[in-house]
Amino acid sequence: MILQSLYSDIGIHLLQDSKPSVYLNDVCSDPPFSQYPLDILYRLKNTEQSLKHHPEGSVWNHTMLVVDEAAEVKLQSRNPAVFMWAALLHDIGKPSTTKIRKGRLTAYDHDKVGAELSKRFLQEFSDDRLFIHEVSELIRYHMQILFVLKDLPFADIKGMGHNTDIHEVALLGLCDRLGRANCDRNKEQVNIQLFLQKCNFVLSERASIHQR
Known about the structure:
Blueprint: H1 2-16, H2 20-27, H3 39-42, H4 59-73, H5 80-89, H6 94-97, E1 99-101, E2 104-106, H7 110-123, H8 129-140, H9 144-149, H10 157-163, H11 166-178, H12 185-211
Antiparallel strand pairs: 1-2
Protein name: Multifunctional CCA protein
Enzyme class: transferase
GO molecular function, one term: CCA tRNA nucleotidyltransferase activity
């Protein structure tokens, strides 16, 4: 009951607070937060990141910046509850995937791992399958902005367009990129528009082929 109540309270603060990080930073030290499944979030506090890309420090610090950014734009989302939970859970795959490779901290495939973890996490509290599916798919594709912009082989515009909403991915991705210390807001907003342009071009080409 305590964990269910805490989950409900987190959901309320995600949707109602202008800065959900204030509440989250307050409760993250409480004993229930270190119990399964909330320990999935608790582990973010001790997961470090490359200071080159994340000068704010741990994954938890980054996530708090992201949820605050998301709170400012949540009404632009078609489903603010899905959007805010995706913002909170988007990097939960990092603790188990973070490794030092060739002297660098990396977290390869944390998007895929995080998508599966988010299902397990949310299923402990909710039986809303559509809600859980939509949150997990946003997490699954949140790295696509980097992949698409850099024309990396991991880019999957067609899969993203089929499984989720690219505009929701773009909105979450913007918050993710702004949730870093010393980010360039204008540059990141331009990057998101470029991402949408590339996606729309590929998806419109695909649609025209099917119509022939």
